Amino acid sequence: MTDTSNTQPADSEARAPRQSRLRRVMRYIPLVAPVLLWTVPCWVLLYTGQHWPLPVTLVGTALFVLGLVGMPLAMARGHGRRQQDRAAIVGDTLLGTSWVLFTWSVLIGGLLRLVLTVAGVGEGQDRARAVAWAVLGTAAVLLAWGYAEARRVPRVRSLDVQLPRLGAGLDGTRVVLITDTHYGPLDRARWSARVCETVNTLAADLVCHTGDIADGTAERRRAQALPLGTVRATWARTYVTGNHEYYSEAQGWVDLMDELGWEPLRNRHLLLERGGDTLVVAGVDDVTAESSGLAGHRAHLAGALNGADPELPVLLLAHQPKFVDQAAAGGVDLQLSGHTHGGQIWPFHYLVRLDQPAVAGLSRHGARTLLYTSRGTGFWGPPFRVFAPSEITLLVLRSPQPPNSP
Predict the structure, then answer these.
(1) ω into residue 389 within 30 of 0, thus cis?
(2) Is 207 helix (H, G, I), strand (E, B) or coil?
(3) Is 107 helix (H, G, I), strand (E, B) or coil?
(4) In the chain, is it the N or the C terminus that has fewer CB atoms within a 10 Å radius of its CB?
(5) pLDDT 10s digits, 57-114
(6) In degrees rounded to 5, what are phi and psi of residue 93?
(7) Which of helix, strand or coil describes residue 174?
């Protein structure tokens, strides 16, 4: 294994990405979203012809008002300067609950009413209550299932990826990708250990973590991250920073991963050799690194590939899929990313698509470059995953000419 590094900025470094459409939309979400998330289901469940007994209406309204007021307050205390884990758990859970209630209030409240109208079922208290119970039942089932999906050890997703420039000696190389573990307010040390045990069953040549290790500093989340030190790989364990590291003293996470035996690929690369063939494994800091103000942190593809033979195949680790435009321009063969969580709670993936070129899975960008976007190994914030299952990914790299082929 050869280590080649370059973390210095260069004149040829690509410009910072333009502000995305999603970020422009996100400016207004903190003001508008809580009101919509709580008032829409409140209206659909209580005030569209159900004529519930007065105590039911008053208690139901009070609960929605409590959610509307309590959610932003809890999230501010949990994720603001105070960083109170209990408040964060409450705020995150309320956020996920309100999103599911809002989504299915809109869908069932609209579609079921339309179906009943087409079926000739007229307006009335019974119909309104049927819609309300359908919304509540659907939301309850999805929240219970989504919680179990978020807390379980991810299933392994396996796929073969053919790289035209990959030498026959590297055919069958096993790359395991974990990402977006997001160790946070909910203590998941046991979950972390079980994830690492699963990774160790996959006989990986290379294990990659593409960032967003945790929400919180390395010192604060150390116990949850320590099992990463037990991960085994034949060649190397590699890591790049995600955007959440830059909310939580990123250098501390780089130092901890180095301490645990991982190779932080901060704008540098490794050369992995087998059977007379070589693969360049490169990594870049997250695209938000430069704006963090942390000295020496920035996404720098030219530095990551400095000194590498341009004829060799390149595997690039970059936290956000949108870095693939630079990767394609730089001749990268395969980029591995996370960040999107696959949307995490349906149908949030439609918003993710405003910011990223891919939400999940394998996609092609340009003539050569493939991008694999993981749905993530953990979860951020709301402890729910709805129609966006977490994953540990096994990618088996394939050469156009496997060993011993005629």
Answers:
(1) no
(2) strand
(3) helix
(4) C
(5) 999 999 999 999 999 999 999 998 888 999 999 999 999 999 999 999 999 988 877 7
(6) -65, -40
(7) strand
pTM of the model: 0.90
Question: What tokens does 389 get?
Answer: 């299952």
Give the amino acid at 163. Answer: L
CB 154 within 8 A of CB 391: yes
N-terminal to C-terminal alpha carbon distance within the chain = 30
| Tokens, residue 14 | 């690509």
Q: Write out the two tokens for 124.
A: 């009335």
- Give 161's strand partners: 397
Cα(186)–Cα(183) distance, integer angstroms: 8
The token duo for 197 is 């045990």
The domain segmentation of the chain, as residue ranges, is: 2-15+154-398, 23-150
Report residue 333: phi and psi, to 5°.
-85, -40
Pair 112, 356: CB distance under 8 Å:
no
CA–CA dist 355, 321 (Å, integer) = 9
- Asked if 151 contacts 191 with a C-beta cutoff of 8 angstroms, the reply is yes
Q: Tens digits of per-residue pLDDT, 264-300? A: 999 999 999 999 999 999 999 999 999 998 999 999 9
